[in-house]
Amino acid sequence: MLPDEDEVIIIGSQAVQAWIEDLPDEVSRSREVDVVPVDDADDSKAMRVNWVMGELSPFDDEHDVYAEGVGLALFAGPTGWMQRARALVVGRSDGTELRVLCPEPHDLCVSKLVAGREKDIDFVTALARLGVVDLDRISHVLTGTDVDRVRLRRAADLLHRIGRTLPERPTGS
User: Fold this and answer.
1) CB within 8 Å of 32: residues ≥ 6 apart
2) DSSP string computed for 70-129
3) pLDDT on residue 169
4) Which residues contact 18 (CB under 8 A, 6 or more apart)?
């Protein structure tokens, strides 16, 4: 499993599993794990991930899960996301270790909202409904995201739309 890598980043929905155990299927059902090899300016390492562990690979056949090698540019994380990421250390069969960084769930949700796909909206909605993330906190960290104003506004609108679908939160009296 990626013998030449010392560190990777998981940027997709599966990263939340580093933070929360026993997630329901609506959050953890994806067979795909988005993997960013660190120090991969030309995405050649990401292509290698696809070759070794990608969909329809022997790894996929054996484990019923696959890695999608992607570049870090795909992740629209807010300022400071890497400092908030959880680092896991995974032992390899040869005795070496792989460091795996997983963004904090609110930071992950920001990137999902910027992407704006229906599956991303469903993911953020499910995390909010489960109480894993707080929409006000997502809104706060969203303002520190380095994307153009149009994408930032669209993400904020999606967040507002998600908020309207959730039950009223109790307010202090």
Assistant:
1) 12, 14, 55, 65, 66, 67, 68
2) --GGG--PBTTHHHHPEEEEEE-TTS-EEEEEE--HHHHHHHHHHH--HHHHHHHHHHHH
3) 61
4) 10, 86, 88, 100, 102
Q: Which of 34-43, 94-103, 164-173 has the lowest mean pLDDT?
A: 164-173
How buried is residue 81: exposed, middle or buried, by Cβ count under 10 Å (0-12/13-18/19+)? Answer: buried
Could you tell me if 4 and 37 are in contact, meaning their C-beta atoms sit under 8 angstroms apart? no
Enter the pTM of the model: 0.87
Q: Which of 119, 134, 158 lies closest to 27 in space, CA to CA?
A: 119
pLDDT at residue 55, rounded to an integer? 85
138-154: pLDDT as tens digits: 999 999 899 999 999 99
